[in-house]
Structure formats: structure tokens, C-alpha cells
Specification:
single chain, alpha/beta, Rossmann fold, two-stranded antiparallel sheet, GTP-bd, transmembrane helix
């Protein structure tokens, strides 16, 4: 019955640390995107593994775990060859964890503090009196745990805590209770991923008739295989006889000599965590965003920002300013009495606005607020972005994408207003042709004024009885009359010819402003909606790669 750990693959410490670092990167990448309750086990593993590897690689922590009456304490004392843990008929006997250290106690103090064994329950087994008798177990820390089926809840909690910390577990069962449902369903089955650091002993084998022992061992083997613990060493022990624990002692000696139990335990924990985490990212590549979804978002943002209203104001302002610059000078003053469309919206580019909109820290436009339909359209567009980006992602990730898409929704109105206020609408300077037409209008107006003055002077001379002026003529028309009428008619004609050109140029100005405004609100959409969504997708992709690295053996 001297079955022990054989043929186990050695664990490379460097590779194990690299895998743990990959899990740590995974946790950093998914932080804030996945519920914390799904990551508790991984966080616990990373913290525990780092602490365990930092404390000691030269010690192997082995726990004797079992039910009430299984003989754990007797086996503990037999292995230590000293009466260290109390043995008696009162149940439960072991109320606290006892530790026996082979080697200097000072070297194991920090590890025992981390495990949580009280100083008064720590014992040193190896001494100069033993010579080399105990040297084969040098580095072993043997723990006698409380009974996991104790009626005291604190005992059960202590066992559960320590089973998550030790390097190797020796499950102690007795012939009467080896098939007990509690130990199989609540404990042994949970250790199916830790077969490399699990050992089962059928203690008190001396109480069975020699003919019954193989049958009981075979039945226990069958139960272990059903628990997923096929291949786990199974030994028969008897604490009352030194030969009865020889197989167990040999297995412990081999385990201590290999210095692999801690690494194998961490590898088993890591495999279990990686398997559970795989469900969180094992859904292939996400669909991502497409051009139509992004374009729909841009249209909704433009509607909510009032791009159409601003573009319409630009067209009206262009006509208003153009008419004032190219119209008949005698009626320009009337146009200046009418409010400028852009000034009414408190937008840049209004006449006399010397402030650079790019330097404005707070947008203060008077663009009309979006209607209920426009707000609804924007909400639907953001939801479409989230749905499209989250398509194909495993559970919890679509919710993270939606949360990212809406994470800056409260700041979006101010950002859109600021983008409108900072956009150059192309209305800062007068076009050259305005100046040319305006100069021409002033020229013909001056001709009309000269003609009018000339005629007025002639009438005045006649009224005073002075000699009349000898006015030159163009054909049959006196030159003063020609200047007056020609200037008036020319001014009206230029204004009439300029009006279609102004409308055409105003439409161009509107399209140009609309393009610039749309680009500005698209930048806002990218910063406030698309960038957070893409950040989540990037985190998902990086998390998949990190977990794939953590899964490599």
C-alpha cells in the first residue's frame, strides 16, 4: 500500500510567476468593466500566491484534515514521534490547529504567522538528539487541523480557511466513516483540480480484519474516482504501529525533497481560476462598430447640437451682412437696424465680436435646446452604438459597453454647446467681391450725388437771376441729369444683380458651416461616446490575450 506521488511533471517557478502576472494584468484590464464578485477568486489567488512565494520556497506546509474520530491527531503525533496534539474520547478533540516544524522554528515563523497558527501551538521536531533520523523531513510544516464536521462552526471555518493556504492536504478517513457524504461532496470533490497535492489515507487500518482491508481500500478507491480524484495516492495507515505509517512518511519525505508541493498547489489554484475566468472572455472577437452606426450617431449629435439652426443662421447672416456691404449706400443704415442672426445666437463671427471663440472656457450660445424627438434620437443612437459594439461579447461585457457609452452623457450637452461656440463658421472676414461691389455702389452713388448737386446749383443760380451754367450734354441728356439718374439706376441695377449672387454664396456658406459644425460635434461624439466604448473593447481584447497567456503550461 505504499502508493505515492509518481511521474508528476515538475512545475517551473518562472513559468508559474509569468502566468500569475498574466492573471494580474487580466484583472487590471477588466477592473471596472466586470462585477467584482466574478473576480474575487482571481484577486485572492494573485495575492495569496505572491505572499506564499515570497515567504518561503524551502518549506512544505502539509495539513492533516479529517472528520471527528478519524485519528488525525494520533497520526500527527505518530509522524512527529511525540505527543504534541491532544488525543482523547471527547469530541471534538482538536479545537485549534497545531503545527510541527522540522527544522529551525525561526525560519518558519513568518510562514506560520501567515497560515495563522498561534505561537503556543507551534512545535519543533528536529533536534541534535535525533541526529539524522529526521533530516529527511527537514523543511516540513505539518498541521493538525480541527475536525471539519465539528459541531462548532468556528472549527469548520478554520478548516476551510487553512485548506486554501496549505501546500498539500492529507485527507484522513477511518473504516467507519470513509464513505461519509459530507467529506466527499463538500471537500474531496472540490479538490479534483488539486490531485497533484492531495493524498488520502485510510487510517486505523489495524481495526479491520486482514481479509477486509483490500475490500475497503478498493471501495474507497471507487469513491475517490467518482469524486474526480483518480490517480490520487491512497494509503492504509495505523498510527499505533510505526510500520503502519511508513508509506505515509515515505510520501512526505519525497514531497519535502522535491520542494514542488507549493508550486503544484498554486498551479492547481491557477488552473481553476483561469478556467472560471475563461467564461468571461471566451466568445471570440466582438462585432465592433461600423460606419453606418457611427454616421447615425453623428446625425443624432448634429440634431441635438442644433447644427441645422446654426447653419440656417449662417446663411441668413451671410445675406444680411452681404446686403449691408453691397447694397445701395443710401439704405444701408436701415439694414443695420435689423439684428444680426448670429449675434442673436451669441455665436462667433458676429460683427464687432473681437473675442476669440477658441479661448472661451465656457460656451454661452443661445442655440435652441434640442426637442424631445432629438433627445430621443440621440439616446437611441448611443444605444445602437453600444448594442453594435457589444454584439458577440460574453455576459457582463455588453453591460460594460453600454455603461461606457453613457458614462459621459451628462457632460454631452455642454460639450456640444462648446463645440458649436468654438467652431469657425467662416464669417470672420468680408469676401473681396463684397468690397468690390460695395466700392462700385459708392462710386455710382457719388455720381448721383454729383449730378444732384450740379442740378441743384443750376436751379439756385436761376433763382438768384445769375447767369445759368452751361451744362454739357450726352446726346440730348444734360450731364447732371445723366449723373443723377444714371447713378440711381446703376445702384438699383447693381443691387438687383447682386442679390442672386448673395443667395448662392449664402447657401455655400451654409454648407461650409454645416460641414465644420458636423465635424466638430463628431469630435465630441468620438471623445464622449466612441472613445470610452473602444476603450472597453480594447480592454476585452487585451484581457483575452492576457488570459490566453495565463492558460499556457
Amino acid at each position: 500500500m505504499r502508493e505515492a506521488f509518481r511521474g508528476q511533471q515538475r512545475v517551473d517557478a518562472g513559468a508559474l510567476v509569468a502566468r500569475l502576472e498574466a492573471v494580474s494584468r487580466f484583472l487590471a484590464l477588466v477592473d471596472g468593466h466586470l462585477p467584482d464578485k466574478q473576480l474575487v477568486a482571481a484577486h485572492t489567488l494573485v495575492e495569496r500566491a505572491g505572499t506564499r512565494l515570497a515567504l518561503s520556497r524551502d518549506h512544505t506546509v502539509v495539513a492533516l484534515a479529517g472528520a471527528t474520530g478519524s485519528g488525525k491527531s494520533s497520526l500527527f503525533n505518530a509522524l512527529a514521534r511525540m505527543e504534541l496534539s491532544p488525543v482523547g474520547v471527547r469530541r471534538p478533540t482538536t479545537g485549534v490547529t497545531h503545527a510541527c516544524v522540522w527544522g529551525p522554528l525561526d525560519d518558519a515563523t513568518r510562514l506560520l504567522d501567515w497560515v495563522g497558527v498561534l505561537p503556543r501551538h507551534r512545535f519543533v521536531r528536529e533536534s541534535v538528539l535525533d541526529g539524522d533520523d529526521e533530516s529527511t523531513l527537514h523543511g516540513l510544516i505539518l498541521l493538525d487541523l480541527p475536525d471539519f464536521d465539528s459541531v462548532q462552526r468556528s472549527h469548520q471555518l478554520e478548516v476551510d480557511r487553512l485548506l486554501g493556504l496549505v501546500d498539500l492536504v492529507v485527507w484522513v478517513v477511518d473504516p467507519q466513516k470513509y464513505a461519509d457524504r459530507v467529506i466527499h461532496t463538500s471537500y474531496l470533490r472540490e479538490f479534483h483540480r488539486h490531485r497533484d497535492v492531495t493524498l488520502v489515507v485510510l487510517n486505523q487500518a489495524d481495526r479491520l480484519p486482514p481479509a477486509e482491508l483490500p475490500r475497503v481500500v478498493a471501495d474507497l478507491r471507487r469513491l475517490l474516482d467518482a469524486d474526480g480524484l483518480d490517480g490520487v495516492p491512497l494509503l492504509a495507515t495505523a498510527a499505533v504501529d510505526p510500520e503502519g505509517i511508513a508509506g505515509l512518511r515515505e510520501a512526505l519525505e519525497r514531497t519535502v525533497a522535491e520542494r514542488q508541493a507549493a508550486l503544484r498547489r498554486l498551479r492547481g489554484d491557477l488552473d481553476a481560476v483561469v478556467t472560471d475566468l475563461t467564461e468571461l472572455v471566451d466568445a471570440g472577437e466582438p462585432a465592433g462598430l461600423n460606419d453606418s452606426t457611427v454616421a447615425a450617431l453623428h446625425r443624432a449629435l448634429a440634431g441635438a447640437a442644433g447644427v441645422a439652426a446654426v447653419a440656417e443662421a449662417v446663411e441668413a447672416a451671410y445675406r444680411h451682412r452681404g446686403a449691408a456691404a453691397t447694397g445701395w449706400p443710401l439704405v444701408r443704415g436701415w439694414r443695420r437696424l435689423r439684428p444680426d442672426p448670429l449675434r442673436r445666437l451669441h455665436l462667433p463671427g458676429a460683427p464687432g465680436d473681437a473675442k476669440d471663440p477658441a479661448e472661451s472656457l465656457v460656451a454661452a450660445t443661445s442655440v435652441p435646446d434640442p426637442t424631445a424627438a432629438q433627445r430621443s434620437a440621440l439616446g437611441l443612437a448611443i444605444r445602437s452604438v453600444a448594442d453594435r459594439a457589444g454584439a458577440g461579447l460574453p455576459a457582463s461585457w455588453p453591460a460594460a459597453v453600454t455603461a461606457a457609452a453613457r458614462s459621459r452623457l451628462a457632460d454631452l450637452p455642454d460639450a456640444l454647446d462648446g463645440a458649436i461656440a468654438r467652431t469657425d463658421l467662416g464669417m470672420g472676414s468680408r469676401p473681396l467681391w463684397w468690397r468690390l461691389v460695395g466700392g462700385l455702389q459708392w462710386l455710382v452713388t457719388a455720381a448721383a450725388v454729383v449730378g444732384l448737386g450740379w442740378l441743384a446749383l443750376g436751379y439756385a443760380l436761376r433763382a438768384l437771376g445769375l447767369p445759368e451754367l452751361d451744362n454739357p450734354s450726352v446726346g440730348v441728356v444734360p450731364l447732371p441729369t445723366l449723373l443723377l439718374l444714371g447713378g440711381l439706376l446703376a445702384g438699383l441695377l447693381v443691387a438687383a444683380l447682386t442679390r442672386p449672387a448673395l443667395r448662392w454664396a449664402a447657401r455655400r456658406a451654409r454648407r461650409r458651416a454645416e460641414q465644420r459644425l458636423t465635424a466638430a460635434v463628431a469630435d465630441v461624439g468620438a471623445a464622449y461616446v466612441l472613445t470610452p466604448v473602444r476603450a472597453v473593447l480594447a480592454s476585452y481584447a487585451e484581457a483575452r490575450r492576457a488570459l490566453a497567456e495565463a492558460a499556457r503550461y
